[in-house]
Amino acid sequence: FFSTSNMMLARLLLLCLVWSFAQSEVLLHVSFDINQDMDSESSLANLNAYLTSTNLKWLRYYHVLISGAPSSVPMRVAHLMFNNISSWAQFEQDNLHHTHVLMDNFWIKGRRNLWKRSPSPIAKSQTERSDDNRGGYVYVLQYSVQQGREVAFNARFSKAKERISELLVNEPNYIEARSFKSGQIQSQYNNMETYEFNDLPSLTRIMYGDSFTNAVDDVKQFLTDFSVVILTPGSGDTAALFWRAAGADKDDGPGGEDL
Predict the structure, then answer these.
(1) Cα angle, residue 67 at apex, residues 158 and 58 outer, rounded to 5°
(2) Cut 0.85: pTM above it
(3) Are 202 and 139 contacting, i.e. CB atoms less than 8 angstroms apart?
(4) 53, pLDDT greater than 90
(5) Phi/psi at 19 (nearest 5 deg)?
(6) CA 70 to CA 68: how far, in whole Å?
(7) At 26, is the pLDDT very low, low, confident or very high (cuts 50, 70, 90)?
(8) C-alpha gyration radius of the chain
(9) By the 8 A CB rule, do 237 and 112 touch?
(10) Which end of the chain, N or C, is less packed with Cβ atoms under 10 Å?
């Protein structure tokens, strides 16, 4: 009876996770290198085809400043946001040709990961995102918690985040914090937190200050793995823009119709 009850509980938890994934926003994280011989016009044509999809909310493009890995990794990142897992699936179904062309010829050595958005305990920024406050400088913390130590980890890290939240809301160049999970898809690095700023000095002042570094050091005992990545925008007028797709919300940030 005990074994059967455990199996039923495990199945119930799995169903809850699947339902949660189906109802939450989903981020497609694509890391890649640029093919130096690529045809830029053809590449942009495939990306602009993405933006016509009513299932895609927006696309953003970053350079990798700090990779957080001991081996060579792709040095470009694109984020694509969807309302839920069903929207992502339909987008992929409709754009198989464009994705194959893009990943085979232009965005090489690519890796694609799905992340479910979860509520962030960090307070909302007092700085509204705008053309003058685009952000684009992103501190990315990825980690996994040891099985059986989730409660202790959450209690310790949540308390530290209350202090960090106070620092962030008083930083005029802080833009936004987001939290994501991917435990249903991968066993390593199944938590991701992003902290976005208007510039690198502001990011460094907060994320490498005593409060945050001490908080991370304090919970390392509960983690099986962790990594830090720093993303920066490209250069020029289009840096840090949200490229709004046909499925975008009104508050998805400054952007343009074409890449």
Answers:
(1) 75
(2) yes
(3) no
(4) yes
(5) -65, -40
(6) 7
(7) very high
(8) 19
(9) no
(10) N
Q: How many residues does the chain have?
A: 259
Dihedral angle of Cα 202, 130, 64, 100, to the nearest 10 degrees: 170
Amino acid making up residue 69:
A
* Unique residue bearing structure tokens 């005029």: 172
Report CA-CA distances (Å) from 196 to 117, 201, 244.
Answer: 15, 12, 19
Q: Is the pLDDT of residue 123 over 90?
A: no
Query: How far are the Cα atoms of 8, 10, 124, 156, 202 from residue 4, in angstroms, in the given order?
Result: 6, 10, 44, 34, 53
Structure tokens at 22: 């189906």
CA distances from 99 to 59, 70, 107, 125 (A): 14, 29, 10, 35
Sign of CA dihedral 197, 199, 202, 208: positive
Looking at the DSSP assignment, which residues form a beta bridge with residue 61? 78
pLDDT digits (tens, 9 = 90+) for 161-201: 999 999 999 999 999 999 999 977 777 889 999 999 999 99
Structure tokens at 139: 């501190």
Contact 174, 168 (CB under 8 A): yes
pLDDT 10s digits, 60-69: 999 999 998 7
Helix, strand, or coil here: 123? coil
